[in-house]
Amino acid sequence: MTAADPRPAGPRDVDPRPALIEVAGLSASYGRVAALKPVDLHVAEGEFVTVLGPNGAGKTTLLRAICRLVDGAGRISFRGQDISTLRTHHLARLGIVMVQEGRGLFGEMTVRENLLLGAYGLGNAADEVERRFGQVYALFPNLRQRADQIAASMSGGEQQMLAVGRALMAGPKLLMLDEPSLGLAPRIAAGILDALGALNREGLGILLVEQKAPLALKLAQRVYVLASGSVRAELPAHEIGSHHDLARFYFH
Amino acid sequence: MPSLVELVQSLVNGVGIGLVYGLIAIGFCVIYNASGIVNFAQGVFVMLGGMFTHAMLIKLGWPLAVSALVSIVAVAGIGVLVQLAIVRPMWNRKAPLFAIILATLAVQLLIEQIVILTMGDQPRTYPDFTPGGPLKIGDIAISYQLFWILGCGALMVLLLTLFFNRTRAGRALRACSQNREAAALLGVPVDAMLMLSFALSAALGAAAGILITPTQYTAYGVGAPFGTNGFIAAIIGGFGSAPAALLGGVLLGVVQSGAIVVVGAGYKNVVALTILLVVLLFFPQGIFGGRGKKA
Question: A39-51, pLDDT tens digit by residue?
Answer without folding.
Answer: 999 999 999 999 9
